[in-house]
Structure formats: C-alpha cells, structure tokens
Design a protein that fits this description.
Elements: H1 3-22, E1 27-29, E2 46-53, E3 56-63, E4 72-80, E5 87-96, E6 106-115, E7 120-128, E8 136-142, E9 150-155, E10 165-169, E11 175-181, E12 186-192, E13 199-206, E14 211-218, E15 221-227, E16 238-242, E17 253-254, H2 261-264, E18 266-274, E19 279-287, E20 297-302, E21 304-306, E22 309-311, E23 318-321, E24 326-327
Antiparallel strand pairs: 1-23, 2-3, 3-4, 4-5, 6-7, 7-8, 8-9, 10-11, 11-12, 12-13, 14-15, 15-16, 16-17, 18-19, 19-20, 21-22, 23-24
Bound molecules: (2R,3S,4R,5S)-2-(hydroxymethyl)piperidine-3,4,5-triol (DGJ).
Length: 328
C-alpha cells in the first residue's frame, strides 16, 4: 500500500466513523456492493448470523480475508446500532484443525447464541473435512460477545448428518439450530439444551432438500427459507409456512423470479427488526465468489411478507430505520 492510499483509507475510515456516530434515522443499505467497516475494509462475515443485545446488533461470520494463515479458519465479529455501519470488533476464532480433518478442513456458517442463564456466548458452526463427508457441528464458547471463543467439541446433532446450519430465536427467546440432513433429504429445526451446549430436541424435519436454512416468526406464522443444493452456485431459493414450528409445513414456493436465481445470492438468515411503527424482515443472502471468497458480497433486502406470502424484491439501494422498523 502506498502512503497516499494508506492516508486515503484512514480518511475513509474516519468519515465512516463519523457517519456511524451520527447514525440515527433511515440508513442506506446497498445490496451486492463492497461494505466497508469502520476501518474501510470489506466486512468479512460470510455465511453469518446476527444477534441483538440491548441496542446493539452483532454480526458473526466467516472471515475469508486475503493473507490469513491457510492452516486456520477464521470467524469475525462486528457490531452496529443501525445495521448499516459496522465496527470490526475482533477475529473471535482463529481455529486450527480441531481433529484429524486435514489441511483443507471446513469451518462454515458460524452462529452465536447468548445464553442469559449461564451468561455465556455459544457459537455453533459447520465442521467438516475437505470432502464434506464428516457433516458435524462444532461448539465454541466465550465469556464475552467478541472475546476469543474456545472450541469445545464437534458432533453430529441428534446423531444426524449436519452440513449448513442456521439459527432461529423465537419471540419467547427459545433458541433453535437449523441443520441440513442430506440422508433425510431435509432440514431440522432443533431446540438447544438449557445451557445451549447441546442440541436437545428435534422439533421438526422439513422434508425438502434445502440448505442455507432460515426461519422467521412473523404475525403468527413461521416462514422458512432455503436454497437448493448447488454448492457455491446460486439457485431459486424457496419458502414454506407453518402455524406451528412443529408443522405441518406448506409446500415450498419461489421467493423471487426463478430465472434470477435469487438475484445471485443464497439465504443465510431472516432478520426481524421490530420498530416503534412497524416490523421489517430482512433477507440476508450471501453472494458467493468461490474463487475470490474475500470479495463475496451481501444481498440484504427487506422482504414483502404477510398472510402466508414472502417475496424478495429486486435488489436496489434501500433505507432502514431500526428505531421505527421502517424499510423503504
Ligand atoms: C453451499 C453452502 O451453503 C455453503 O455454506 C458452502 O458449504 C458451499 N455449499 C460449499 O460448496
């Protein structure tokens, strides 16, 4: 980096910092673009998850920055008060091969849950070997939200194969792990144990060969979204609804014109933002760039949702006011 470009980056970071400090009212989200953090670097939180603690949102995801040690897998944590300006907090995992999985082991789609009883932060993640044959979840724990998470163990939840995982926290605070089960041709929604360190109870197995599973509870209905099994390539993501998490679940329908292949993205989470005026549901998708993973982008859009229908509008710049819940 030349001294000039370094200075320019610092100026950009300072401006972003000021913008973040002033952030109130509607904030702009630009789907598919580079999203600079407070340091001016593209956010590295791929295949991620978001939790809200007090008035702050925390975003955790795969850190695929260039120049990292290829023998390790990294998870980063960012915070924001408006879901538009992100502050880098820490590289919360720098995980070496946690077993005997080989140099090309996989750590993907990290999700963090806060357990109010134990006051611990529990991270779930997909752990695999290079062939994706192991199909396990890993669990790590930290005393602070952006601390250095300690890897505890990996296992097959409820004894089943588990690849892509998702997280769902219901309105009553109950925490669920969503995991794709290839032999069963579906994905599970499973309740975590009291301490969140284990996957305790299968609430339902949704019979649809989908990954990237995401669930939201909106106006008395559960909506589940998933993506077909096409590796890094986008496909038409689909949704189903149910009155109870246990099901029965409706048939799956497209969330967007199928020819757009979800506008080049893959589902990772449905984030509900409850404001003083209204509630927004944001589709969080990854736009993967398998050969330049560090440059993978984020397609976030508020969905049109209600009465059993969910639709992802064509991506364009939009604004979100987290205080009122208004997304335009
Ligand atoms: C699709 C999954 O959703 C991603 O997380 C990743 O595992 C890729 N497949 C690997 O091909």
């Amino acid at each position: 980096m030349t001294p000039f470009s370094k200075k320019r980056n610092l100026c950009a970071a300072a401006l972003l910092g000021i913008a973040a400090a002033l952030a109130a009212g509607p904030q702009t989200v630009k789907p598919g673009e580079v999203w600079p953090d407070d340091r001016g670097q593209h956010v590295q939180a791929h295949g991620g998850g978001i939790i809200r603690l007090g008035d702050t949102y925390y975003w955790f995801g795969e850190d695929r920055s260039q120049g990292l040690d290829p023998a390790r897998r990294y998870v980063a944590c960012y915070s924001s008060k408006d879901l538009a300006h992100w502050t880098f907090r820490n590289q919360i995992m720098k995980q070496a091969d946690p077993g005997d999985l080989g140099a090309r082991f996989v750590l993907e789609r990290p999700k963090v849950f806060y357990n109010a009883k134990t006051r611990k932060y529990i991270m779930y993640m997909h752990i695999d070997d290079a062939r994706y044959a192991l199909a396990r979840v890993g669990v790590a724990v930290s005393d602070t939200v952006d601390g250095d998470y300690k890897f505890l163990r990996s296992f097959r939840p409820l004894g089943q194969e588990s690849r892509d995982i998702g997280q769902f926290i219901d309105d009553d605070g109950a925490a669920y792990l969503i995991f794709e089960d290839r032999p069963a041709k579906g994905f599970h929604i499973a309740r975590l144990s009291d301490d969140y360190l284990d996957v305790e109870k299968d609430v339902c197995l949704i019979h649809a060969p989908l990954e990237g599973g995401a669930v939201v509870h909106y106006k008395g209905l559960y909506y589940a979204v998933g993506s077909a099994l096409t590796g890094w390539n986008p496909n038409p993501n689909k949704y189903a609804t149910a009155e109870r998490l246990e099901g029965p679940w409706s048939e799956f329908k497209d969330i967007a014109p199928p020819e757009t292949r979800t506008y080049g993205s893959q589902s990772t989470m449905l984030l509900k933002v409850v404001g003083s005026k209204t509630t927004a549901v944001i589709f969080m998708g990854d736009v993967w760039k398998p050969r330049t993973q560090w440059d993978s982008r984020y397609l976030w859009m508020p969905v049109e949702i209600g009465d059993g229908k969910l639709w992802l509008p064509e991506p364009r710049e939009w604004t979100l006011d987290v205080a009122t819940g208004e997304a335009r």
